[in-house]
Each structure stands twice: as structure tokens, then as C-alpha cells.
Amino acid sequence: WAIENVISYYKPLIRPYKVGNHFFWSNFNIPNFKEEKRGIRRDKSTNKEIGLVFNVHKSDEYCNLFNNDFCIKIKWEKIYRDSLSDSYLYVELTKPMRGPQDPVILSKYEFNFDINEANNYGWLSKDKKFFSSESLANYLFKILLDKIEKELE
Fold it and tell me: Is the pTM value of this prediction over 0.85?
């Protein structure tokens, strides 16, 4: 998870990461960014906005990380109310459509909840690659950023 807010007037109770004029709190390490004037928010060659938005649906059934061109939709599926057996994350990379049309699904991923040989909890992909929650978040974030970067070329 990650929480973002502009730098506040008051000192925060929990020490945040600082990037530009924003505070971030997360359960994973946020690397130091080399700051450039507006370089994080705009592609200088096209001046195209590449800002990302994260939201959690009211039902808490899914969350989205998106910009105007692409979206990563993550849905938690659990079969049993009191067990994580057979539970998984269903992830779609989509191209949102304007109007009433459904988004175009570019790729789909499924990750089953699992415990590896070292007794670490995490997610197992269909091709049997094990991810911690943090490494899975980084992996999915990179998929989205790579797609955005390709679109900007």
C-alpha cells in the first residue's frame, strides 16, 4: 500500500518519504528520485501528462492504478470466508475507452496466494514465479510504466 499527500504545514505523526512537494507513506521502500523540474509529471518531448492515479473501489473488491491511457486493475478473489485457500489476485492491463464501451484488455495475470519453501507469504504466478507482496507491486507498477513509456515514444 502507499499513501500520498502534498507536504503539510504541520509535522506529520509518522515520518514520510519526501519526493518533490509530496509526502509518501508505504509498506515498501520508496527509492530516492533524481528530481527534475516537472520531469516526473510530464514527458518533455511531447509535454504529455503521465500522472498516475490510484484508487480503491468503494466495495473494496478491486483497486486501479491508471493514467489517461492505461490501467492496471487488481481484484482480490477469495473463495472461502475464513481461509486463504484458493484465493488469488486477478490483474488486467487495460486501455480505457471513452464512453460506455468496456476497456480493451491488453493482458491478464493471475497470482495465487502461497507460502514458499522459506515460509514467506506471497504470490505465485502461473509460470511458478514467487513474489512477495512488495515485489509483486513493483512488478505490476513496472508493467504499467513500461506501457506508458512505449506509448510516449
Answer: no
